[in-house]
Amino acid sequence: MAKERTFLPRIINAAIFILMEVAALQMLSRNADLQQIWIARAAHGVMGTVWGSTQAVANYFNLRRINEDLARENFELREELDSYRTLAHAQRADSMGVARGQIRGFDYIPAEVIKISRNKQHNYIILNKGYEDGIQEKSGIITRSGVVGIVDAVSAHYSYAFSFQNSDISISGRLGDEGATGLLVWDGVKSNGAVLQEVPLQYKYAVGDTVYTSGHSLMFPPDIPLGIAGEARVINGATNEIRVDLFQDFTAIRYVTVVHNTAFEEVEDFNL
Amino acid sequence: MRKTGFVLVYVLLAVVQMLICNYFNLSPYLMLSILPVMVLCLPLRVPTFWALIIAFVTGLSVDLLSEGVLGLNVLALVPVAFVRKEVIRLIFGGELFARKEDFSLRKNGFGKVTLSIFLVQALFLLIYIWADGAGTRSFQFNAIRFGVSLLTGIVVSLLVVDILAPDTRK
User: Fold this and answer.
1) What is the ipTM score, two decimals?
2) Taking CB atoms and an 8 Å cutoff, what residues of chain A touch B134?
3) Do B164 and B16 touch, CB atoms closer than 8 A?
4) pTM score
5) What distance in Å separates residue B107's CA from the closest CA in chain A?
6) Residue B56: its pLDDT value, please?
């Protein structure tokens, strides 16, 4: 009770003190140009700091929406790029006398990773989109940094996929723009480590060459950069096995694009 | 000192401060002010609320009636009134409040009174010189002005203490 009796007057005194100081500053700024500039500059500084801080906080909470916008924009750009690639292939096919019907395209669907495992030999990914969103089995999963995995099963709203960090997964990779192709598999050790297997010995390459998707796997469009080629070793005197440092950082995957070859089922029918 | 006597002396000292502001311009490095010690010497029975009002009115009167910038003395003097009781409690202890006595040079000693004057004078001058310079004066100029004004102010303030807070013991 005694504390309450002393607390209230202190608050009142502090409030009156602040009011009087504000009044004094107001008088100063109205009656002296120099002080007016000085006070205005200080006030602007304080306002800038306060508004800058609040804007930084607001920006932080907007990051999710911004990321989603970027993912959507990325997806639209991929679709546009794919249409140009299809057009370029068509023109090349025309010049080689190939019929237009043989040119295939891909569907792109943006998705978000809701669960991913990384510390096993058979890692998996769960996406927040399912068959109601257009996701189909045997679709590829990519980001701007490379290949992430392959969709294995889909429910209405979710998809289960094998991560590239899975000893059962291999994708077709190509050395450089027009080099040899081989099977790219995870090395099972490093997060960004892979090996390009079964590269014929007669094909020459240089350490530092970029490894791309070859387009032979049906699941992934060609020419997606995957990583950088490193040292090679000869396997059984017949083929090279080339170490590859992947561009994809599997510890920071959130937004991905699911790609599905529109001609997949038709081509798969030949594998009876 | 009786209440009416104190008020009269206080007003007269405020007039003296106005005269100092108008005619005592010896150097740009010297800002002589007895306002902080006047507020410090307000009787202890005056609550902080009224001390704030008195400081505001005193500062405003000096600003209006002298050649200063309106608001400058108010800005520097009101904080002195706000911390007055805390300074007295810190330097002289809580006994003064318990006995409801005011401090004086003879009763509380030259050292303690000087220290309390130093604190309020320093607070007043820091704000006054900072606001008066408005960011245009160099740190060196402000520091010299602060030092010179503080030393001079303490000497003159000791005289004011003797006038405003005389020893009432017979």
Assistant:
1) 0.80
2) 32, 34-35, 37-38
3) no
4) 0.50
5) 29
6) 92
